[in-house]
Design a protein that fits this description.
This protein has about 120 residues and is an all-alpha fold. It has a domain at about 5-40. The protein has one helix and no strands. The two termini are about 85 Å apart.
Length: about 120
């Protein structure tokens, strides 16, 4: 099926329009990504305070940190008026029959295994 000359000319102009639109969209996307990622990156990273300078680095030359001092146990004294009174609750019991019934299964008979004697060759 051949196309007429006017149809070929129309298709050629549509291809040119599509190429221009595609290039414009890709250029805009590239400029947007460049603006967000590349243009905004600071060449000099922010300075780290001296106190936080070694945090997060792994080095075998560093010594283990000194253990933290154990917290001192404080004696808690309470007067009888301030003491918390605890009551024990009795265990839950019920005299209602369970609606679930369990059927007893017959025992499975165990068949003795026959021991094969080794064959000498």
């Amino acid at each position: 099926m051949s196309l007429a000359y006017s149809d070929k000319k129309f298709e050629k102009s549509n291809q040119r329009k599509a190429l221009v639109i595609t290039l414009a969209i890709n250029t805009l996307l590239f400029l947007l990504i460049w603006q967000v990622k590349i243009w905004n990156d600071s060449p000099n990273p922010p300075a780290i305070p001296v106190e936080d300078a070694g945090i997060g680095e792994i080095s075998f030359e560093q010594e283990a940190p000194a253990p933290a001092p154990a917290p001192q146990k404080q004696e808690l004294t309470q007067s009888t008026a301030d003491a918390v009174q605890t009551t024990s609750t009795p265990a839950l019991t019920s005299n209602v029959e369970s609606p679930v019934t369990v059927k007893a299964q017959p025992p499975v008979p165990v068949e003795p295994k026959e021991v094969e004697e080794p064959v000498d060759l």
